[in-house]
Amino acid sequence: MTQRRYANDLPDQSGRTAVVTGANSGIGLITARELARRGARVLLACRDERRGKEAAARIRAAVPDADVEFAALDLADLSSVREFAAAYTADRLDLLINNAGVMALPYRRTADGFETQFGVNHLGHFALTGLLLPKLLGTPGARVVSVSSGLHVLSNIDMGDLNSERNYRRWIAYGRSKTANLLFVHELARRTAAIGSGLVAAAAHPGYASTNLQTAGVRMENRRTAERVIELGNRIIAQPAAMGALPTLYAATAPGVRSDSFTGPRLLGWRGAPAPSWRAGWTLNDVASERLWVASEQLTGVTFAGLGV
To answer: What angle do CA 63, 145, 163 make, to 5 degrees?
Structure first.
């Protein structure tokens, strides 16, 4: 199987169970739909109940025998993350797709007081993965796929200002949160390898894909002209969301995917079929990844029991 042909070669997923965060729209919805199309049982982990149930109905309309279900999860509230994990009673978890995210928002804080982009994009998924880790480690061939971005190159993390309190710049904060995703994958891969686990921790990014992610921030501020410009760019320049979902699907299901790999679109990391993606060297720094891991455990109160250091 080649990466170029992967759109038509998604392996059979019968008997597998997947959790996809942010599955009510965009990349997450397509990822959930295609996993269900190939036989997986998929839990749509979404903040908004109405939109989550509508997404489940849309998937069933496209895939009549789809085994999909909505489950409430607000990554901006760690109590919701804990409730979701406690309610997850299945005896296995084959795929955890950490897809949900926010981009370039005006300064906001989560329910727990974290800057929203760092809190949702990184800390919420960090806590979710840690709480579901026993299910993942107990499932042969399980994978954790974190959706980062090529825009992680905008900035390394600032360990002295994780909440961007000193000087908030929305795009820099977004880049830091996406760097945090990659550092998390790097450290999770390192720690699971240290205990001899077969769990695969991988990362993916969609390139420039047309979704509602780009317009959320300007819509919050009622910046109508900026919203129209972004929508025009989505129509003219961006690739369809269905193509943007392919790197995630590849990382989640393709044979031979290595832990700590980073998959994105083939053409300059911008668009096209899945291919290995370039990543900034700072996302492969063992010291930085361990420091962020320790800080994230302290901030969330979630520890990854049983993992080596």
So the answer is: 120
C-alpha to C-alpha distances, 272 to 30, 206, 210, 243, 268, nearest whole angstrom: 16, 9, 13, 7, 9
Predicted local confidence at residue 270, as pLDDT = 64
pLDDT for 6 equals 62
Residue 305 pLDDT level (bands cut at 50, 70, 90): confident
Q: What is the pTM of this model?
A: 0.91
Question: Strands of 41-46's sheet, edge to edge?
Answer: 67-72, 41-46, 17-21, 95-98, 143-147, 200-204, 262-267, 271-276
Give me the residue label for tokens 């309610």.
87
Contacts of 38 (CB under 8 A, 6+ apart): 10, 11, 12, 13, 14, 253
Tokens of 198: 């077969």
Residue type, 181: N
Question: How much of the chain is helix, strand and coil, in % rounded to 5?
Answer: 45, 15, 40
pLDDT of residue 158: 96
- The answer to whether 174 is a known catalytic residue is yes
Answer yes or no: are the C-beta atoms of 162 and 118 closer than 8 Å: yes
Catalytic residue among 6, 88, 168, 174: 174
Q: C-alpha dihedral over 52, 60, 263, 12, to 10 degrees? A: 140
In 10 A of CB 80, how many CB atoms?
A: 17
Q: What is the CA angle 241-244-249, rounded to 5?
A: 115
Enclosing H/E stretch for 58:
helix 49-62
